[in-house]
Amino acid sequence: MKLSIYGHGSSANHGNEAIVRGICALFKNERIKLYSFLPLIDKKFELDQVCEINAFGREYKRYSFEHIISSILSRVANWSNLENKYRFKFFLNNIDGIYMLEAGDQYCEGKKHRKMYAYLNKEIVKRGGKTVMLGCSINPEILQNKDVIDDLKRYSLILARESITYNALLAAGLTKNTMLAPCPAFAMESQPCPLPEIFSNNDVVGINVGFLAQNNEAYYDLMVENCEKLISYIIENTNFNIALIPHVNWSYEASDFKTLDKIYVKINDTKRVEVVAEHAAPQQKYIMSKCKFMIALRTHVSIPSVASQVPTLFTGYKVKTTGICEDIFSDDIKLLAHIQSLKTAKDYTLCFLYMQENENEIREYMRKIIPNYIAKTQIIYESIKKLCT
Q1: All domains of the chain in start order, with CATH
Q2: If 0-12 CB within 10 Å is exposed, 13-18 middle and 19+ buried, where does residue 63 land?
Q3: 76 in Cβ contact with 46 (< 8 Å)
Q4: Which residues pair with 275 in a beta bridge?
Q5: For residues 1 and 27, is the Cβ–Cβ distance under 8 A?
Q6: What whole-number distance in Å separates Cα of residue 101 and Cα of residue 99?
Q7: What is the pLDDT of residues 191-244, one digit of tens each?
Q8: How far apart, in Å, are the Cα atoms of 110 and each of 4, 13, 85, 124, 221?
Q9: pTM higher than the cut 0.85
């Protein structure tokens, strides 16, 4: 099989890294090509040990001849694909085999973003390749757009990673090329590493929060206040230590560290609280597996935590968070407190109390459900393998 992954933003978002590692684990006998927007960051986190890393797209140099001509034509002639034609010229020159779009929730981004991937999908197919939309989550309202539907029909296979997206795709008429399978990140193995000092005594509650996107910025202050109230409750009423765990780190202004630092400086008893250093995704999964409980904003913090059978509160703000949580925990929505539902500053604390009081039942449920759920990632391998015959 000739397999390639494209649309990889880089390991600056360790969820992207985890998806790639999960795919490589599923196709462990294949050498996969990864086309990344930021190859150097991927090499920093040693992703080149599991796949071959290539540069994905080139950027216009500002005020270069190509940049000026593209700007003029885009505005005057509405030639929106000129920039994509230039940007992905080298990627599209040698199309051969199956190309897996690291879809995630990229189709939930703006129209320009979706048009870029529609262009690539069309060009790959035109050049004889097959495309797979892998591990996708899409807001159902986006599937009311005819251009999006026409684009999705070109994929040889769409693998939805949760039932909300899967059912929306079927309702939109995409029944021939759509399947349901867990996010490939569930297949990523953990990697032991030295634990942060905070783990040396007492059990640890892991907390992940950070900046918000996709028009959810208005919920940020209440989310932070919920975290602060929860930390105060844990310090005052339990013996637990607290690990503040980062996940996304594009730059300090666009990283979880900024929010975690904001929370940390307000804490009185810092001996029991630590901002954990950034790690590669398999090591982060190992650290999370040692937590007693997890409060997770990022879906790809929820995934390794749940995969490790740690009772986890899903607090994310996207369809993927709700979908994955509902698929795993069914009607137990008390483990889902996405930010749009927050009403008071004590909502996270109430959910944490629920996890504490029902810990044994939650752990027993996860012990029965999670191994079978993770095993369903084999659907990804089997369905893509069929495309090669």
Answers
A1: 3-56+95-188+376-387 (3.40.50.2000), 197-357 (3.40.50.2000)
A2: exposed
A3: no
A4: 244
A5: yes
A6: 6
A7: 999 999 999 989 999 999 999 877 788 899 999 999 999 999 999 999 999 999
A8: 25, 19, 19, 22, 24
A9: yes
